[in-house]
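Reproducibility note. Readers wishing to regenerate the assembly model reported in the main text can use the exact inputs given here. Chain order matters: entities are listed in the order in which they were concatenated for prediction.
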Amino acid sequence: MQFGENTVIDGLSFDVARGETFGFLGSNGSGKTTTIRALLGIYRPTSGTLEINGRVFSDDYGARLGYLPEERGLYKKESVLDVMTYFGRLKGLSRADSQRFSRDYLDRVDLADKADVRVDKLSGGQQQKIQLGVTIMNNPELLILDEPTKGFDPVNRRLLMDIIEDRKKAGATVVMVTHQMEEVERLCDRIILLKDGRSEAYGTIDEVQNQFGGRTVRLKFSGTLPPSPNFRVVLADTNYAELALDDSADEAQVLRELVHSGMLVRSFVAAKRSLDDIFIQVYGENSTAEAAAI
Amino acid sequence: MARHNLGTVVQFEFTRTIKKRRFWIATLAIPALLAIVFGLVFASSSSTKSLSEAQKNDKLSFSYTDASALLDPAIARAMGGQVETDPGTAVERVREGRLNAYFSFPASLTEGQVKVYGTDHGIFKNGTYEAVARQLVVLSAREKVGSAELAAAVQGTFSTQAETFKDGQVSGGLETVVPPLLFLVLFYVVIILLANQMLASTLEEKENRVTEMILTTLNPTTLVVGKVVSLFLVGTVQAVVFAAPMVLGYVFFRDQLAMPNFDISHLQIQFWPMLVGALLFIGGFILFTGVLVAIGAVMPTAKDASTVFAPVMIMMFIPFYIVTMVVSDPGNVIVQIFTFFPFTAPITAMLRNGFGSLNAASAAVVIAELFAFGALALRLAVHLFRYGSIEYSRKLSLRTAFARRR
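Running the prediction on these inputs yields the following structure tokens for the assembly.
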């Protein structure tokens, strides 16, 4: 995929299985939003193909798609109910069904009294709820969420997570572009890490963690951490540390080493390397958690 | 689905426009203004009529001298006049206010002047003196001629009826020109009223960041066509609202509002000029709408779009600079260029169609051209909307837009 002389996606290939939740990860400018837009026919790829159910996307599929773009927006001067009904109708619902869904949804998100209020009279958080409602109002079989929690307050974030889980249970396929590793670990079956338009890692979370090797130890202790060739300290806080174990180090050996150093070990939990660590390794310490499309 | 969505788009766009209070304030402002003007005219007309009646009953008193011996003393007496017995002091008496008016008729009306002296009753009422003096001469002369027919012949106060022929058929006058020119009026009204809305119609998706959700739900052609159709419907509503007070005024209060006594039953509606006018109107509407929508798709904001929008609108008015030439010399090279240049074609061709100088071949070419360019403009608008509206905060590079083939 090229914009003028710039190649923004190069040699990227991946697939998303029906019914799975797929995480699309990458730093700013890595090509995530561009890939999604190309998948949805908003951009045309310079070469290669992107298909949904074996077909290049066309607006006919819009009735089965729920898309929450990175750039959020709604018709501002119309009432909430009018806007939701309009999108419902565009997605193939009847007027009555659109209105019924809208009222039920507004009730669920505590905005029932705002049905006749103009969208621009709502707070930012309330507008986000409406946008989310529009995204899922046709019970889509494919949900594409580009930075879904961007700008969401904790309440809306929880709502979004609940909705994604609901859709997962209903058998929908979910593709989410995100920087929130805890969301990825909680929701995603498989992920892809994109860097400069290329795939850096691709597979289940376990596979990606294995690909980047390393195990970590979450340690609660009293005393002083001794230096050791068997681990390096990833995170150090008062009486808490995260250690990245050397490939050849054995967890029991590290525990023994710590105990013998004279420190008091209160908790020792060995785990695979966190996605946060992997993300930082791939994109560097300066990668930001802010989303930015190309 | 596309057809279903076209109806949905039209309904949404139309309904949300006419539901806005701002729309009705703007739309009703003109008829309200007209109603106020009509009210003032009505009131003024009533008082003028009363005044006229009062003046008619008021007999003007004057004295006169008649060196021409043309005047009939009986008529003069009936109009309030009496022969001046002391012409030497008459003007002085008028000056001092002791005599209302004094008219001095010369020996020869063709060589001399009728001198009219009167006391001042205001700039409008003062005209009565001359009117009475003149009327006195006319009535006296008519009395002397002794024949109303001859008098009418001399005065030229008789009516004529002309009939001309073209290709063996009776050709019309103004009665045939007016109906097809109504499309010209309609074209101006619709474009001028809706131009800003056309421009803003695609900007809205961009400014509200709705583009991506729309493009993944709806074919952009359906959206653009739906917007154009709804704009047309909105324009129709506005035209009806604007025309309503004029139509009501004409039908029920024509005399009171001093409206021209134009008998619309004399209008001759001819099939071909009306058909050509309608097609020119539709073709021109599609062309201008397509161009304005395309401009909206390229520009990031309404403010940026307005700079490009102005030249397009000016082209609508340029043909009026040569309107005399269009009517009197339609074969002129400039008129021909204006007839076939797409942006000046609707106006020029509609004018020529109204005045009967647009032959069938030229009409067919212009109509075909307008529809072709209109379709091209709409297609361009759709393409630019697809790729331009995603450029949320910057102007779309045309080079980039066309490089992204779809």
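We highlight two features of this model. Strands of chain B lie at 62-66, 81-83, 101-105, 115-118, 164-166, 169-171. DSSP finds 16 helices and six strands in chain B.
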